[in-house]
Specification:
2 copies of one chain form a homodimer. Chain A is an alpha+beta fold. Chain A has 2 domains: 1-81, Winged helix-like DNA-binding domain superfamily/Winged helix DNA-binding domain (Arc Repressor Mutant, subunit A, Orthogonal Bundle); 83-138, Ferric-uptake regulator, C-terminal dimerisarion domain (Dna Ligase, domain 1, 2-Layer Sandwich). Chain A has helices at 10-20, 29-38, 45-58, 106-116, 132-136, and strands at 27-28, 61-64, 73-76, 86-91, 97-101, 118-120, 126-131. The longest helix of chain A has 14 residues, at 45-58. Chain A is globular, with a radius of gyration of 17 Å. Chain A binds a DNA duplex through residues 6-12, 28-30, 43-47, 49-51, 68-72.
Chain lengths: 138, 138
DNA sequence: TTGCGTGCAAAGGTTTTGCATGGCA
DNA sequence: TGCCATGCAAAACCTTTGCACGCAA
């Protein structure tokens, strides 16, 4: 899925190929920049951010804000993932980001819309809490 | 509910009194600083952050992360609010933060715990989406 | 040729930290 | 007195922006 408008450039193509090769995997802007800095064809930080912003605007990539001061995370959004049954949970203890596929949770969207007039964007929402592993450890 | 450890100081007392007088209202660190800068007894930025950090650690105040680059929000956490029936929705269009009291949504916590082994912290989670007003406007 | 994309550097904003001073117990 | 809290300034951090140059169409 190439961008819908604007020029087709090398930086854009390589970033998209990289993200697409790791669907569902979260990358920070710095990680993406470092990935390309390591090899040939480094890409400037500003370009990283500008392309990511474009990808997000076009719905190709999702952006997740996990905390103040922390970097935002970006992940390639597959068509299959794009349905409302994909959720994210972040463990406040170990920091792990957990992916959840759950049909039941889709009911939340209906409830929020019908009862609270709010069109929920599940893809951007992160559920905070404590994962099972961390609870066992105390 | 005074802090459990450390000294009892003027800055601490005034900040807590201010937050407590507005339960459930969200303030950024800058807003709190400006509030005290306006009157007598201004409080330094570093102290604002250090006290807020302490309040959050002690559970007196809740911290909300709404976006990268945006300031974090802090709100006094009443006992009554502390139950799981208080939720937050942020409109991605107008930026408004909507408070929601909904018994039905509490079922999410049970579901996440029983089916996904995840102890959800509803107080910290923000639901992103589009509010009714903004949808009407297109 | 036209104008968008890129890179560098600098700015922007929020939050944290170092260090000397002041206040609480 | 001993130790913590405070304030100022500077640093740290992520992200955005200005500007000149380069590349796509």
């Amino acid at each position: 899925m190439p961008p819908k408008s604007g020029y087709h450039t090398r930086a854009q193509e390589e970033m998209l190929a990289y993200l697409r090769s790791r669907p569902g995997v979260h990358h920070t802007a710095a990680e993406i920049r470092d990935h390309f800095s390591a090899g040939d064809n480094p890409i400037g930080t500003a370009t990283i951010y500008r392309q990511l912003e474009r990808f997000v605007a076009e719905g190709i990539v999702r952006k997740y804000v996990l905390g103040v001061g922390e970097s935002a995370c970006y992940a390639y959004a597959e068509q299959a993932e794009d349905c409302a049954s994909h959720f994210h949970c972040k463990c406040e203890a170990c920091g792990r980001l957990i992916h959840l596929d759950c049909e039941d949770l889709k009911a939340i969207r209906t409830h929020l819309l019908d009862h609270h007039d709010f069109a929920w964007n599940a893809g951007k929402t992160v559920f905070y809490g404590i994962c099972g592993d961390c609870r066992k450890k105390g």
